[in-house]
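Predict structure. Chain length: 258.
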Amino acid sequence: MRELSEQYHIRCKEGDVGRYVLLPGDPGRATMIAQHFDQPRLVAQNREYTTYTGSLDGAPVSVTSTGIGCPSTAIAVEELCAIGADTLIRVGTCGAMQNFLRNGDLVIAQAAVRDEGTSAQYIPISYPAMAHLDAIHALQAGAREAGARAYTGIVRSGDALYVDLAPQSIPLQALSGGNAARMWSEARVLCADMESSTLFVVGTIRGLRTGTVLLVVNAIGDPEITQQHGTGNALDPLIHTAIAGLRALIRADTAAQG
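Prediction complete.
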């Protein structure tokens, strides 16, 4: 029988996770990220949610996979917040919306276009989806430490992956001329993912620090996702940036407390 205090979906309770949590989508990436922790241990596995907890520089840290999309991300954020997490960093992949972005580049989100349905059920669409400034600066420092080529700017979060990958085959996109991706590109949106906007909105409402770092794996409108850039050693710059960013936050928090 589950303990009463255990969160229904992530199957974690207070004390199982640190205040700092990295959020990949893929449970397999959660396992990869946990290998960078000191003394990582598997806490729970249920549905798309896999959680490990360990430490960095003496501070308890965790990684929880969220699955794909904003609905499952919102569940993870709510349940992690309920058991004491207050700093949540998405570690994921994206499709480039600017020609200067190359596969393997990183994007650090400062804000997200709310082109999805989940966050609108929390608050009207006019409410901005903003990353926390502390997280942005920490991830920028982490990218420099990792030697990664990284850009900071606006990302767009949507609900339907294949609308972006093959818009000409989607009835609504075909009817409108398939120009949505061009519009966002001309508005200087850097890339597209499927989670960040809800992470930022729910995080702000709940008083959390949130951030996102993304690895470019394909271009919008390209039906082929570059597999070698989303697996194995290709993920190293992304993971190293996230870990270094988390260490930067831990150092800053420790100094502020001291």
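Summary: The chain has a mean pLDDT of 92.
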